[in-house]
Amino acid sequence: MKKIIYTILSLTLLIACSPIEKEYSMGRDYTADELDVSVRAVVVNGKNTNKLIFENHSPILGEWDYSFGVTNQQVVDTAIIVVEGPLTVTFKGLNPSGSMITKKFEVDIQDLYFPVPPEWGLFCGNGTKVWEWEVDEDPFGAGGYMDSHEPWDPTDLSELEGGWWNQAGWGEGATMSFSIRGAAFSKTNASGTKTETGTFTFDMSQKLMNIWEPDEIWSHGKLRINGGTSILAGRVPHYDFWYIYDVYEFDIVELEEDRMVLAHWMEPREWNDEAYFWIFRAKE
Fold this sequence. Notes:
Elements lengths: L1 H16 L19 E8 L2 E10 L4 E5 L4 E2 L4 E5 L4 E10 L5 E10 L9 H6 L3 E6 L6 E5 L8 E2 L20 E5 L4 E5 L6 E9 L4 E2 L7 E3 L2 E5 L8 E3 L6 E3 L2 E7 L3 E7 L8 E9 L2
């Protein structure tokens, strides 16, 4: 009798401990056709609007590349698209083995129903806008962090050609461009012989107030250049040790149709109250 009871218990434990086979197994890789991922536009008045909804119900991590940015929210996320027309959205997933898997979707944006941040138009115009140094002013140098809007200790652009700046070709005559499609960034040296490319993002929620005038906005947001490049002469000196280093994130001090002022707080930030400034104008 005891033998029968032990046998029944053993079978019960075996059944209880056996894994239940599911539709997905984390032990193998998946093909694009097996993924449960989707993207769709919110429809208003029968038209595809510029708000997209991404869904990933597959057992793998991934991200959505929608040309104007990337989101890696894992189940459901949304994004606002800034132009009308056909758009390719790419899901990029990571298989259990570490291999990448992609699946593309085509969406036709028919109506900019949801508001588009105006900074896209200021940075990029109607598609691509080219910017150059504002050579009618002192467009580069040190000034007060959270205080001034221009350098009070300017560096002449000719000094970029040699010495420790090591920015030959990125002074007067060099240009940079911002494009809506793909949030693309590029810069070209004065002779037109060298171009560097990347992407850009901005966050207008990160405002800073003037340290002396608390009711005055000093910086309207943050601009970041991605892809290993930066704005024209995107370098600053370390205030303590006086070496030069590249920088990729900037405070947006001014942004208008034909004028852009950027700043970067210099190190060491524990006590330093200075920033470097760049002043650009839209190229006609």
